[in-house]
Amino acid sequence: MQLKEVSYYQTGGTCDQWIVPGSVPELAKAMSRLHAEQTPYFLLGAGSNSLVMDDHWPGAVVMFSRLKGICTVHDRIIVEAGVLNTFLAEKCLADSLTGAEWMYCLPGQVGATVRMNARCYGGEISQIVESVTVVTRQGQIRNYPNDGIFLGYKDTIFMRSQEVVASVTLKLKPGEQDEIRRQMEFCKTDREKKHQLAYPSCGCVFKNDYTAGVPSGLLLDKVGVRAFSTGQVEISPYHANFVFNKGASARQILEVTLNMREAVYQHFGIWLEYEMEILGQLPEDLKKRISEVREPRPKESEIAPLRERFLAGQ
User: Fold this and answer.
1) Dihedral, 43, 115, 113, 27 alpha carbons, nearest 10
2) Residue percentage of the chain with pLDDT more than 70
3) pLDDT of residue 314
4) Is 68 exposed, middle or buried, given 0-12, 13-18 or 19+ CB atoms closer than 10 A?
5) What pLDDT does 209 receive?
6) Are strands 41-44 and 57-63 parallel, antiparallel or unpaired?
7) What's the confidence (pLDDT) of residue 246?
8) Is the Cβ–Cβ distance between 129 and 112 less than 8 Å?
9) pLDDT value, residue 196
10) Rounded to an integer, what distance in angstroms lies between the CA atom of residue 97 and that of residue 59?
11) Of 43, 51, 312, whose CA–CA distance to 205 is shortest?
12) 104 and which of 89, 145, 197, 230 could share a cystine (Cβ 3.0–4.6 Å)?
């Protein structure tokens, strides 16, 4: 089996080992072994925020597709890392619990949602997390209360420590099913209207740069990045921060995104940071370009008019 068969972006080659634990202790045992053997590895949930490279990966890939336990206790839900965001939202609806409506039709699994502190439609996972159970790189199981875990937008301690989110306890509130369902349908309809699920993608390629006061998608749109689209790589006509895979290699997708970042820097002086995670073997020439960081030189004369229109809702 190739990684492109299980990655949301439909890219990726082969690997030396597949590890698919069925419980938190199994995950801990696997991590302990990888650490003892010094085996390189990367984590792959649903892959909805990732681009997996096509070259063979000489190591292990840890997947969470069997970690699907979910249990409701009054207003709390204990959920394992491999549960899909949409399934969690549906479970909350069934139990008349509000707080997770925004997760409906959000691609990906709960573990990654917590790890990256995902947010959309006014919701953020940090708002409903009570505690998180993780497995360290050495195979130890630890529990963290929601106190200092979430550092900001798409930023948590787990992204820095490389501890693996194994399960999470969410604290929600009782709600009316009709209202919960209405909010869920709004999220679904909005994604469909924006054609976000039309082709494989990783969601937004770049993080928002809040110093600009303008979403990255608008900056990308303003500089005309859709001109970089090819037959295999299409920048969405509806959201310039979405890049669709229509039969491309991982390298082709990366090269298009690098052109997008360069165009924004040349026009606005803003150096966009990747939100998309790049997994696997990265060729040296691409590694250098991806890891490049340039000094921001915001061109306020170009940004200000766009910011005014954005704040005015135009």
Assistant:
1) 50
2) 100
3) 61
4) middle
5) 87
6) parallel
7) 97
8) no
9) 84
10) 41
11) 51
12) 89
Q: What is the DSSP string of the chain?
A: --GGGTSTT-----EEEEE--SSHHHHHHHHHHHHHHT--EEEESS-TTEEE-SS-EEEEEEE-TT---EEEETTEEEEETTSBHHHHHHHHHHTTEES-GGGTT--SBHHHHHHTT-EETTEEGGGTEEEEEEE-TTS-EEEEESSS-EEETTEEHHHHH-PEEEEEEEE-EE--HHHHHHHHHHHHHHHHHTTTTSS---SBSB---TTTTS-HHHHHHHTTGGGG--SSEEE-SS-TTBEEESS--HHHHHHHHHHHHHHHHHHH---PPB-SEEES---HHHHHHHH--------HHHHHHHHHHHHTT-
Structure tokens at 109: 């699994």
In this structure, is the dihedral angle defined by the CA atoms of residues 240, 124, 6 and 192, taken in order, positive or negative?
negative
The pLDDT value recorded for residue 86 is: 97
Low-confidence ranges of the chain (pLDDT < 50): none
Residues 6 or more apart from 305 whose CB is under 8 A from it?
none
pLDDT tens, residue by residue, 150-204: 998 788 999 989 899 999 999 999 999 999 999 999 999 999 988 888 899 998 9
**In terms of CATH architecture, what is 216-311?**
Alpha-Beta Complex (3.90)
Copy the structure tokens of residue 9. Answer: 């972006």
pLDDT for the residue 153: 78
Token pair 């303008």 is at which residue?
A: 214
CATH of segment(s) 70-193:
3.30.465.10
Domain 3-63 belongs in CATH node 3.40.1390.10: no
Domain boundaries along the sequence of the chain = 3-63, 70-193, 216-311
pLDDT (tens digit per residue) in 19-50: 999 999 999 999 999 999 999 999 999 888 99
